[in-house]
Amino acid sequence: MRTLVIEDDAELCKYLQKGLEQAGHTVENAMDGKSGLIEASAEEFDVIILDRMLPKMDGMNVLKALRSMGNETPVLILSSLGEVDHRVEGLQEGGDDYLVKPFSFSELIARVEALYRRKTKAASANTLRIADLELDLLTRRARRNGRQIELLTREFKLLEFLMRHEGQVVTKTMLLERLWNLHFDPQTNVVEVHISRLRQKIDQEGETPLINTVRGAGYVLREKA
Amino acid sequence: MSSVKKLSYLSSSSFRAALLACLVIWLSVSLIAYALHGVVVDTFVGNVKSELREKIGHAEQVIEAGAFYHPELYPEFESPEPLQLAIEEASASQFLRDYLADIYEHLEAEQAVSEKTLLYTRLLLLGEPVMQELTEQVLSLPSRATDSVLKPLDVSPLSAVPVHLVVDLLYEEFPEEYHRIMESLIEPRLDDWSGLNPTEFLGYTRSVKLFLEAEGLLEEEELCLALEDASQQVLVTNSRLYRPGELVFDDFFTVLIDREQASRRYIEERPEVCLVTALQLPDGGRLFVGQSFVEGYFLLLELDRILVLGTLGSLLLAVFSGYWISRRAMRKISAINGLCEQVSQGNMQIRLEANASGDDFDKLANNINRMLDRIESLMNGIKQVSDNIAHDLKTPLSRLRGRLELLSHMQKPDKEAVASVIQETDRIIDCFSALLRISQIEQGTRRKAFHRFDLAEVCHTLIDVYEPSITEQKLNFAPQIPDAPCVVYGDREQWLQAIANLLDNAIKYSPEGGVLDIQLCEKDNRWLLVLQDSGPGIPDTEKERVFERFYRMESHRGSEGNGLGLSLVAAVCKLHQAEVKLVNNQGLRVELLVPKADQG
Questions:
Q1: Helix or strand or coil: residue B128?
Q2: CA A150: distance to chain centroid?
Q3: Per DSSP, which regions of B260-342 are E strands?
Q4: What is the DSSP letter of B102?
Q5: What is the rounded distance in angstroms from the CA atom of residue B292 to the CA atom of residue B287?
Q6: Closest Cα in chain B, distance from residue A136 (Å)
Q7: B430, B461, B507: residue with CB nearest A188
Q8: Strand pairing partners for B451?
Q9: Selection from B55, B26, B47 nearest residue B299 by Cα
Q10: Long-range contacts made by residues A154-158, C-beta under 8 angstroms, separation at least 24?
Q11: Distance CA A42, CA A25 (A)
Q12: Which domains, ranges and CATH numbers included, belong to chain A?
């Protein structure tokens, strides 16, 4: 997976490169907006990680230029400006995801993976299926191992999201953002409770657990633990 | 206060303004006083002047007509001896006038005297040979009266008086029908009286001298006169005039005079003063005519003195008033200056004295004091917050340090330990983010992100998020949120977080199996959101303080949380002009009153 990191903070750059390479990415670096734009338009990347505040050329302008050139590479915007209108602006200008500094690396990698997957497959089936778990998107019912599973709306949404990101780590923040459009972290462990309720319905005694917790990162739905 | 520099009066604008005002008042009052003085002088002097001018004018006519008697003018007559006639009388003319009047009065008083008798008597007296006619007329006249009248003058008086004077007198005294008789009697005499015509004109100066003597003016107490001939030799005078150096004729001047002691009726302490004019006579002589001006002069002198002293006195008074008026202002300003200096040196406790008089300085002092109170409380607030931040962050940071140290000693770093270090760091970052967010909300810079949104939808979303947690706690939960939109104008994200914070608290502090109520309704044209839990509540004494940053109640010290949740709620409410109330009602009842969005 080829990833371009456009970030002027040298230390953060180094840290991102190291982390991403460990996760199996090929990483290119650009330290300012101009050279970032040149590199992004010269080569093909799977994902671009773009800092909002950049010397020489502002991150938003890089994004605008890229999109106007017809470059559709998924872009993850990094910013220390976390307010809602900044986020909306970033996404409107063609950003695909928005991550506020400071962030945890696992959050970043989860989001980059998600972007990459979204690029590779655009599923449009009526039924999602993983191992023996089946989710009917029309009737909003799940079925596993021959047993019907009744789902509440929010449980259905959660399961759908997890299944669409099969094999990817999904963070708490991502869940709060995508399912409820909440951009802050509630104090209590609401997400854990949601997951554990869903897990009670999906993974029953004797079955291979499908919903797995990744410590310090989030959750992943996959066949093998 | 010793360090405070005293303002110097000259550099004080209030002193200068007060002084200027007082000086302007002084100047205008002085001008009025001088104008009044001028009017008084004009009145006093003017009266005397016009009186004198009138006299002079009259005298000029008389002199030019030669219509006065002086023996020197009529040398044909034997010179009358005024002293023989009557010692007290000043002149012959005067004597005659008085004497005749006396007789007339006398005779009239005797009654039964016909006018004709009177006429004959008068003519007889005047020396006419009318004895016979009179005798016929007045046989019945009482002898005593005739005696007393006739005795003093057995000489022929007419030889002593000018005829035309007699004629004048008789004309005045008698009715017109007698004039003819007189004329018929007198005229023959006049015809052959050469002395009727005065000697040739004697020159102006001499005429004046004779006039003055004939009219007895020199003896008049009120007048002061001096006549000089062309060689400035004094001819007649009744007083010693001190002449001014240069004479301006026809103008008036006041002089001190020294009367002859003998002619002074009484001797007074003060000198005599005359208002005098000098007249240039056609033949080079000079006449000084003056009128006694003692009363007026001393009055005016007194007035002058009052004016000068008054002006100087009121000038002093004006300066003093300026000083006195501005003194209070100066003192107050000095006090304020001193206070400002002290405050700028860091003494925040100092306050101005306010004396409750309600004047402008008092209001200023009160306002300054209130401002200082506010600044002090804000400074204390900032100090407390930064103390709290320092304290609250020091704890997790030192914990973090400890863990890292522990990790560094490990041969093979334990994943668990690293994870907990990361968690600790996340908590610190969260804390900072929350602080930053609160201060952003408090600054109100995000107001441009305001838009209309549905508060009920916000509640539904949050309930959807929190419901599993609520159920897990086995809370008795019955939300009452209307389906109809409850439109609010504001920042949806901020309200999401604020209400989430309240829900967090409610769930956190409710005992298992307790009650949690959420209710959204309309009240007093605002939206009322009520969250009722069955937790321990908040003591009344701490109700205000729980909104402070990092404030955590003693009983909750052990539990999770950074003490910023309610601070954020307060900040959001303040920004949206909403109200938050904490009520203890079998647990804590939080009431949020949120203004409705305007229609349209």
A1: coil
A2: 27
A3: 272-280, 286-292
A4: H
A5: 16
A6: 22
A7: B507
A8: B490
A9: B47
A10: A154/A179, A154/A194, A154/B464, A154/B467, A155/A194, A155/A197, A155/A198, A155/A201, A158/A194, A158/A195, A158/A198
A11: 19
A12: 2-120 (3.40.50.2300), 127-221 (1.10.10.10)
Q: How far is CA B385 from CA B379, B390, B440, B568, in A?
A: 10, 8, 16, 14
Beta-carbon separation of B461 and A188 below 8 A:
no
So what CATH class is B447-595? alpha beta
User: In chain B, what residues touch A82 (CB-CB under 8 Å)?
Assistant: 433
Interface predicted TM-score (ipTM) of this complex, two decimals: 0.84
* Domain at B373-439: CATH architecture: Orthogonal Bundle (1.10)
List strand residue ranges (DSSP E) for B183-233, in order.
Answer: 223-228
How far from each other are the two terminal CA atoms of chain A, in whole angstroms? 24
Could you please report the per-residue DSSP string of B168-188?
Answer: HHHHHHS-HHHHHHHHHHHHH
Full-model pTM: 0.57
Per-residue pLDDT of B370-399, as tens digits, reads 898 888 888 887 887 788 778 777 888 888
Q: Is residue B501 helix, strand or coil? A: helix
pLDDT digits (tens, 9 = 90+) for B104-163: 565 555 544 555 665 666 665 555 666 566 555 544 444 444 444 443 333 333 443 445
- Please indicate if any CB of chain A lies within 8 Å of the CB of B493: yes
Q: Where are the beta strands (DSSP E) in B379-498?
A: 451-454, 476-477, 487-490
For residue A180, which residues of chain B lie inside 8 Å, CB to CB?
461, 464-465
Amino acid at position A5, single letter: V
Taking the C-alpha atoms of residue B391 and residue B386, their distance in angstroms, rounded to an integer, is 8
Walk across the sheet containing A133-136 and list its strands: A127-130, A133-136, A141-144, A147-149
Compare CB distances from A186 to B467, B491, B500 and report the shortest one's residue: B500
Which of B248, B289, B234, B227 lies closest to B58, judged by CA?
A: B289
Q: What are the residue ranges spanned by the domains of chain B?
A: 82-196, 205-297, 373-439, 447-595
